[in-house]
Amino acid sequence: MQETKLKAEKRTICGRKVKNLRKEGLIPANVYGKKTASVSISLKKEEFQKVFSDVGETGIVKLNIEGEKEKRLILIQNLQRDPLSGETLHVDLRQILLTEKISAKVPVALSGEAPAVQQKLGILIQTISEIEVEALPLDLPENFVVEVNKLANVGDQVLLKNLAFDRTKVKPSLEEETVLARIEPLAAEEKVEVPVAEKVPVEGEVPVEGAEPKTEEPKEDQKE
């Protein structure tokens, strides 16, 4: 197991006051687990972002909380982000035991180029972005890789059953026939019908053959 470490400090600031922590470059977080009481902590923003970019939500991290002798094994989960800036507002850290199975969401990543897209026959649609699985912490895959190199025609697809992984150790929550990616037809161009304007006769215009000639009533001074 690749060892990834993360340092933390216990915090007493809670509620709305945690915004002051963020101004200092800290992220409020909580450690929780099946057999442990929840602990409120703070993480250094830059250090956390580096660790998260390396391990995501499926990599095991050794958490060193200041004042504690033993390190905790955790998974990073439930990131809360600002919808506008994308800044991390809060994090949950799930404490685990290597001998107990856990449920975790594993990201799905597309790999390669689909011939149908290269030949402009259709568009590639990824229908599933993550799959929840049950496994021992050390058996959690970093991601599920979906190869799309063989998707040559509209209607071609990749199913969960097409992926290669040890199903005796990793049990996905989805059915084996679940579609992960497929080729759909290109959207047909909408034809805009231009309405035909009604033709307005112009004075002096030659009448169309078959049309009834216009007659003018005599003016008052021409009547007898």
Automatic annotation (TrEMBL):
Residues 101-184 form the Large ribosomal subunit protein bL25 beta domain. The keyword Metal-binding does not apply. Part of the 50S ribosomal subunit; part of the 5S rRNA/L5/L18/L25 subcomplex. Contacts the 5S rRNA. Binds to the 5S rRNA independently of L5 and L18. Belongs to the bacterial ribosomal protein bL25 family. CTC subfamily. NCBIfam families: bL25_bact_ctc. This is Large ribosomal subunit protein bL25. Residues 6-93 form the Large ribosomal subunit protein bL25 L25 domain. Residues 202-224 are annotated as: Disordered. One of its GO terms (biological process) is translation. Pfam families: Ribosomal_L25p, Ribosomal_TL5_C. One of its GO terms (molecular function) is 5S rRNA binding. Keywords: Ribonucleoprotein, Ribosomal protein, RNA-binding, rRNA-binding. Residues 211-224 have a biased composition (Basic and acidic residues). The keyword Iron-sulfur does not apply. This is one of the proteins that binds to the 5S RNA in the ribosome where it forms part of the central protuberance. One of its GO terms (cellular component) is cytosolic large ribosomal subunit. InterPro entries: Rbsml_bL25/Gln-tRNA_synth_N, Ribosomal_bL25/Gln-tRNA_synth, Ribosomal_bL25_b-dom, Ribosomal_bL25_C, Ribosomal_bL25_long, Ribosomal_L25_dom, Ribosomal_uL5_bac-type. CDD domains: Ribosomal_L25_TL5_CTC. It comes from Candidatus Shapirobacteria bacterium CG03_land_8_20_14_0_80_39_12. The gene is rplY.
